[in-house]
Design a protein that fits this description.
Elements: H1 12-22, H2 32-55
Length: 74
């Protein structure tokens, strides 16, 4: 019934992609592009979000508003 694992022919392109995906860490190189992307996502973007959150802290109250009330509290 079940258990015929090798009855289908594997697509060579998918096998190559699967092997590349598993061994991606072996072929990684630091280039200016990868360094810039790493810096952007690890340092710059969180710093921007933190700065925005710090500067807008307490300016808007979104809970318990009724029709006609203003969102801004400053």
């Amino acid at each position: 019934m079940a258990g015929h694992n090798n009855s289908l022919a594997m697509d060579p392109a998918l096998v190559k992609y699967a092997n590349m995906y598993v061994n991606r860490h072996k072929y990684f190189r630091w280039t200016p592009r990868t360094a810039w992307l790493t810096f952007s996502y690890v340092a710059a973007f969180p710093a921007f979000v933190g700065y925005f959150a710090y500067t807008t802290d307490g300016k808007w109250e979104l809970r318990g508003k009724r029709r006609g009330d203003l969102i801004s509290e400053f």
